[in-house]
């Protein structure tokens, strides 16, 4: 479907698989400096980023500076405001939009329903997961797990980012 577009998800998570304690929390409030450096060095290589509405609201100022696609049910048809495009995945063909925009590399930045969407459509080619040595016990999961089947990924690399034990795992979609 997309021989030329590559989709890579970036996720920072606690040991127990939480990407935030609540939907309005920025991951930068609890992730390590090393993860932030990795993330900031990675993003310039992407033509666009995709986020959900909650992720957009908590990072709006940063996301306005780049080509951003926001998944939201608040619009019926695509709405462009500067470099930000709001899309309703129920009414718009996301992949057709990305193809029309000629985006070659797209970063998927969450939240869980956005990660789910790309995974379920088998359009999550790579997954970069930073695991921070924290346990939240509750909070926002990486994936919702709704209507899931098994998805296989293959580990490409594992790197310790700091002395505290922050680990960066890079996976490639296997099948």
From TrEMBL:
Q: Name one GO biological process term.
A: riboflavin biosynthetic process
Question: What Gene3D superfamilies does this protein map onto?
Answer: Dihydrofolate Reductase, subunit A
Which is an annotated Pfam family here? RibD_C
**Residues passing through the membrane, by range:** none
All copies of the Bacterial bifunctional deaminase-reductase C-terminal domain together span 65-162
Supply one GO molecular-function term.
Answer: 5-amino-6-(5-phosphoribosylamino)uracil reductase activity
The secretion signal range is none
Q: Which SUPFAM superfamilies match?
A: Dihydrofolate reductase-like
Query: Which named protein is this?
Result: Bacterial bifunctional deaminase-reductase C-terminal domain-containing protein
Q: Which organism is it from?
A: Candidatus Nomurabacteria bacterium RIFCSPHIGHO2_01_FULL_40_20
């Amino acid at each position: 479907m997309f021989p030329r577009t590559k989709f890579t998800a970036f996720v920072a998570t606690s040991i127990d698989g939480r990407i935030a304690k609540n939907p309005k929390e920025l991951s930068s409030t609890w992730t390590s400096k090393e993860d932030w450096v990795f993330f900031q060095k990675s993003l310039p290589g992407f033509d666009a980023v995709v986020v959900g509405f909650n992720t957009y609201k908590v990072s709006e100022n940063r996301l306005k500076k780049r080509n951003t696609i926001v998944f939201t049910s608040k619009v019926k048809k695509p709405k462009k405001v500067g470099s930000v495009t709001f899309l309703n995945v129920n009414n718009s063909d996301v992949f057709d939009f990305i193809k029309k925009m000629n985006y070659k590399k797209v970063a998927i930045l969450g939240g869980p329903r956005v990660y789910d969407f790309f995974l379920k459509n088998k359009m999550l080619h790579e997954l970069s997961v930073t695991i921070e040595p924290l346990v939240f016990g509750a909070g926002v999961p990486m994936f919702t797990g709704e209507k899931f089947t098994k998805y296989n990924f293959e580990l490409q690399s594992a790197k310790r980012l700091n002395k505290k034990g922050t680990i960066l795992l890079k996976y490639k979609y296997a099948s």
